[in-house]
């Protein structure tokens, strides 16, 4: 039998040697009360570390799956005009832990209420926005309590410490569209999120916003790996101002969002790339396809 190539200092001479060793080890473990009791308690359970998974559904809607399998949705308007598989995707969401909403506009609240009712996901939003979504849109009140509701400057520690969410400012509106008759309801102030994942990356979702100088302060408190940045123009900053925002925040990777959903959103990834290069921004540009899922590797930080 061909010898097994091995990169370790001590390795098995052949596959048969390795098989024999493991057979003997299992027999020994079975005969030993001490070792078998440890095994029963899961002390020797093997865990394969996974990367954080990021899915873009179009507009500003994302799904984040943590290394341990926790599921977060951000601004979950899955039923937007550009995501063709929305119905099937919503039906497949059997388990969601958290739904994060940056502001009250309908293209960001999206399908949150239906998904929240189906999955029991807790709502993460500012106090005013959560109150409006519960009272005017029917999100279950028991899933929008103080443990997941906060405000700007605050940071929540969630899911047994696996996820931290910091509330940060945005320059936009936040009216909640409850019905056409009475117009928008008060939804507090708009914002963004800095999401820190244990064993994974730190992600900044800008929400809908213009460029503002305080973005530079984020890097004082957070080491941003991925910046999900709006570039569509008209209702948010366009490519030029978005590129300047990236330069202020200094993320490792910039992923554009909130573009192409409607003709009026004229900003493009190509224009965004040109503006990044013109400003010599160091972030890597990553353009996602609608419905695409990518892996975000853990970045070792000093």
Fraction of helical residues? 25-40%
CATH topology of the largest domain: Metallo-beta-lactamase, Chain A
Largest sheet: 7 strands, mixed
Top-tier CATH class of the largest domain: Alpha Beta
The number of domains is: 2
Structural class: alpha/beta
The gross shape turns out to be globular
Would you write up a description of this structure?
The chain is α/β, with parallel strands linked by helices. It has two domains: 16-44, no CATH class; 52-296, Metallo-beta-lactamase, Chain A, CATH 3.60.15. 26% of the residues lie in helices and 24% in strands. α8 crosses α9 (269-278).
List the helices and strands and how they pair.
Blueprint: H1 15-31, H2 33-40, E1 52-58, E2 61-65, E3 71-74, H3 86-92, E4 98-100, H4 106-109, H5 112-119, E5 122-126, H6 127-137, E6 149-150, E7 155-158, E8 163-169, E9 176-179, E10 183-185, E11 191-197, E12 202-205, H7 218-221, E13 226-230, H8 239-249, E14 253-257, H9 269-278, E15 284-285, E16 293-296
Parallel strand pairs: 3-4, 4-5, 5-6, 12-13, 13-14, 14-15
Antiparallel strand pairs: 1-2, 1-16, 2-3, 7-8, 8-11, 9-10, 11-12
Helix pairs in contact: 8-9
């Amino acid at each position: 039998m061909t010898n097994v190539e091995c990169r370790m200092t001590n390795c098995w001479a052949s596959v048969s040697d390795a098989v024999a060793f493991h057979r003997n080890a299992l027999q020994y473990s079975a005969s030993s009360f001490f070792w078998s009791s440890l095994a029963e308690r899961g002390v020797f359970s093997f865990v394969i570390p996974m990367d954080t998974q990021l899915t873009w559904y179009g507009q500003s809607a994302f799904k984040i799956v943590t290394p341990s399998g926790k599921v977060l949705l951000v601004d979950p308007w899955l039923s937007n005009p550009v995501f063709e598989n929305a119905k099937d995707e919503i039906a497949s969401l059997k388990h969601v832990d958290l739904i994060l909403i940056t502001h009250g506009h309908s293209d960001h609240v999206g399908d949150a209420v239906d998904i929240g009712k189906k999955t029991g996901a807790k709502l993460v939003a500012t106090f005013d926005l959560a109150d409006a979504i519960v009272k005017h849109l029917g999100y279950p009140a028991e899933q929008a309590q103080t443990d997941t509701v906060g405000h700007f400057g605050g940071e929540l520690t969630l899911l047994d410490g696996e996820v931290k969410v910091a509330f940060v400012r945005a320059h936009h509106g936040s009216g909640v569209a409850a019905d056409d008759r009475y117009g928008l309801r008060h939804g507090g102030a708009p914002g963004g999120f800095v999401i820190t994942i244990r064993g994974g990356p730190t992600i900044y979702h800008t929400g809908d916003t213009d460029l503002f100088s305080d973005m530079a302060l984020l890097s004082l408190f957070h080491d941003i790996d991925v910046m999900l940045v709006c570039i569509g123009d008209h209702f948010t900053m366009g490519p030029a101002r978005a590129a300047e925002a990236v330069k202020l925040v200094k993320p490792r990777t910039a992923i554009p969002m909130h573009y192409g959903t409607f003709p009026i959103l004229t900003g493009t990834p190509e224009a965004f790339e040109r503006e990044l290069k013109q400003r010599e921004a160091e972030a890597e540009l990553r353009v996602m396809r609608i419905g695409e899922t990518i892996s975000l590797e853990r970045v070792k930080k000093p």
